[in-house]
Design goal:
about 45 residues
């Protein structure tokens, strides 16, 4: 799993914000990448 796959999954509705946040918690993507995918500030 990487940034591109996570973004692809989120954009198609296969992932939700909590799932993307979990990827940050696991160190797969950064907080900045989270913000790029979600289009909102990481909290």
């Amino acid at each position: 799993m990487n940034f591109d796959m996570i973004k692809w999954n989120y954009d198609r509705g296969l992932w939700n914000k909590q799932m993307v946040r979990m990827a940050v918690d696991k160190g797969i993507i950064t907080e900045n990448e989270y913000e790029e995918i979600i289009r909102a500030t990481y909290q």
